[in-house]
């Protein structure tokens, strides 16, 4: 009996989070209200507190879910048996960045929640942030496969690819203008790392 209650509660929480994403896609993240969210799932607003103790907790659940989705997408790069980073580090990096950029473009609200401060006065709780830390660790593993492990180099990489995403989403969310710079960006990055380590 308790197990069925827990499963039902978990499904309802999942339904609430899915509804929150639908509203965010339609109206924007900062326009999310508990009244609209409750109506979307067929509840009254106070009933939401039986599942989430605040709107911040709903954002937390969305944030953690988004990072789990990103980790699942990016794990395909590491698992691809046809791609060996030792054979072509540039292609390895560029392929991963294109997948990440496609993930960012697929949902602007998700991108904003994960990578910007678009929601005023909210930051992820430590529990929610753990999913981000896990995703960052996966990225470090991915970069290590092409010999990039220095923290300064990783900072440079994140700044470079985050800039591509920010420019693409701000200026041409459905286009390819900055996505098409991926190969050049990966090449520049690897050349800079090679030149620095050789000196």
In words, what does this structure look like?
The protein is mainly alpha-helical. 71% of the residues lie in helices and 0% in strands. It has helices at 2-27, 34-40, 55-79, 89-106, 108-115, 126-144, 151-171, 182-198. The longest helix is centred in the first third of the chain and has 26 residues, at 2-27. The chain starts with a helix and ends with a helix.
Short descriptors:
199 residues; mainly alpha; 71% helix
Helix and strand arrangement:
Blueprint: H1 2-27, H2 34-40, H3 55-79, H4 89-106, H5 108-115, H6 126-144, H7 151-171, H8 182-198
Q: Which oligomeric form is depicted?
A: single chain
Number of DSSP helical runs: 8
Report mean pLDDT, rounded to a whole number.
92
Tally the beta strands. Answer: 0
Rg over CA atoms: 19 Å
Q: What portion of residues is helical?
A: over 70%
Structural class: mainly alpha
Shape: elongated
- How much strand? under 5%
Order of helices and strands: HHHHHHHH
**Terminus-to-terminus distance:** 67 Å
What composes the largest sheet? Answer: none
Any low-confidence stretches, pLDDT <50, length ≥5? none
Short description:
The chain is an all-alpha fold and 199 residues long. The protein contains 8 helices and no strands.
